[in-house]
Specification:
Strand order of the largest sheet: 4-3-2-5-6-7-8
CATH architecture of the largest domain: 3-Layer(aba) Sandwich
Radius of gyration: 22 Å
Helix content: 40-55%
Number of helices: 13
Order of helices and strands: EEHEEHEHEHEHEEHEHEHEHEHEHHHE
Number of strands: 15
CATH class of the largest domain: Alpha Beta
Length: 381
């Protein structure tokens, strides 16, 4: 394999559009991109394009999308292509928004990598869906590569798109665990963090927690919820449940807590809940819980079991009594809490260090770039 002269790969990262409702708070995609770029060998030659650049990205090279373009996928794609050409980007990595990636790949074929943070679309049978599937298959084949955030996502893609040949890799979310410092002893607190929407199982967690607190008066609960305005009726129902007279003085509801605050809460809480009702592509909240040393109760859906391995208790959040009984079991068994806390913390540190994850991401992008250059590879720096 011959070596081409450029000393460092140049990357353009395109972040997905954000709703005006939640754009001020960095989400899991923002955090993932920040961590990957911060630990990348190509940080100095990476530019991030976003419709709203958070303070999170201070110290990175960034470009903010003009507001007049941000509403239209085609305009975003053409603007990104112009920036890629101006900056001589070797690859463009589009996160989460497939249609931006697809349109960019029509302009710059085999230079676009799609970094999916969810399960790829599967089409049902029928003439119309068959036509749509053929269009999507053509869009996929124009890509230079595809990144999945979990084995669950890659397995789903292989089943849904067995006819698509495409360079692929799994790149989990990763953390710099040197920044995490679980406290000992832990607070007698149950922590639930997540978007306040039905698919996250927040209401089921609230119902289970109310029963638990009524039986264990020495314990408290904290719900740190984001996007409470996305489904106001649902948020009101969660608040109504947690306002039950017998427990309301031991429940704290927080909204849109910054990431550093979430980190602090996971480091202090004894028990964390991740009750997702939908298939989680990865489950960053579970990773945060383990990093903070909380004993975790999880639904185990989608990629959540990959994050926890054997170091969590798994429940069906729809079974409120079973959910509550599992929390009570963990409260009453200090030894089990400690085993899950310490085992989970060690497990994620061995598998999800940002240094290893970013190195794997860099290696995949190097492979993709070499393939798009006829098998040549980057010269060593």
């Amino acid at each position: 394999m011959k070596c081409f002269a450029r000393q460092s790969m140049h990357l353009l990262i395109v972040l997905p559009r954000r709703s005006p409702v939640d754009r001020e708070i960095p989400n899991s995609v923002d955090l993932c991109v920040h961590d990957l770029v911060a630990a990348s060998r190509y940080r100095s030659t990476t530019c991030i394009l976003a419709d709203h650049v958070h303070d999170l990205f201070k110290g990175f090279e960034t470009v903010e999308l003009p507001p007049i373009l941000a509403r239209h996928t085609s305009l975003i794609a053409h603007h990104a292509a112009r920036i890629a050409q101006q900056r001589a980007a070797d690859l463009i990595v589009v996160h989460q928004h497939f249609q931006i990636a697809a349109r960019l790949a029509r302009i710059l074929p085999k230079r676009v990598v799609f970094h999916a943070h969810g399960f790829h679309k599967r089409y049902s049978s029928g003439l119309l869906n068959s036509m749509r599937r053929r269009i999507r298959a053509r869009e996929l084949t124009r890509l230079a590569g595809l990144v999945h955030v979990s084995e669950a996502c890659r397995t789903h893609f292989a089943c849904a798109w067995p006819d698509v040949s495409l360079r692929q890799a799994i790149v989990h979310n990763g953390f710099d665990f040197n920044q995490w410092n679980p406290t000992r002893p832990k607070r007698s607190e149950i922590l639930c963090v997540g978007r306040c929407v039905p698919e996250k199982g927040i209401l089921e967690a609230a119902q289970a927690v109310v029963r638990v607190l009524s039986e264990r008066p020495a314990w408290r609960a904290r719900f740190s919820l984001s996007e409470p305005n996305r489904d106001p009726a649902y948020a009101q129902e969660v608040q109504r449940v947690l306002a039950t007279a017998a427990v309301r003085d031991r429940v704290e509801i927080e909204r849109n807590v910054p990431w550093q605050g979430i980190k602090d809460r996971y480091e202090q809480a004894a028990i964390a809940l991740v009750p997702s009702r939908w298939r989680e592509p990865f489950g960053r909240t579970a990773l945060e819980a383990h990093a903070g040393g909380a004993a975790l109760i999880s639904s185990g859906s989608g990629g959540l079991k990959e994050v926890s391995g054997p170091h969590a208790l798994f429940v069906d959040p729809a079974d409120i009594d079973g959910f509550a009984d599992t929390i009570l079991r963990l409260i009453d068994d200090e030894g089990l809490r400690r085993r899950l806390s310490e085992g989970g913390a060690q497990y994620v540190r061995e598998r999800f260090s940002i240094q290893a994850v970013a190195a794997a991401n860099d290696a995949f992008l190097e492979e993709v770039w070499a393939n798009s250059n006829g098998g040549s590879k980057l010269c060593p720096s």
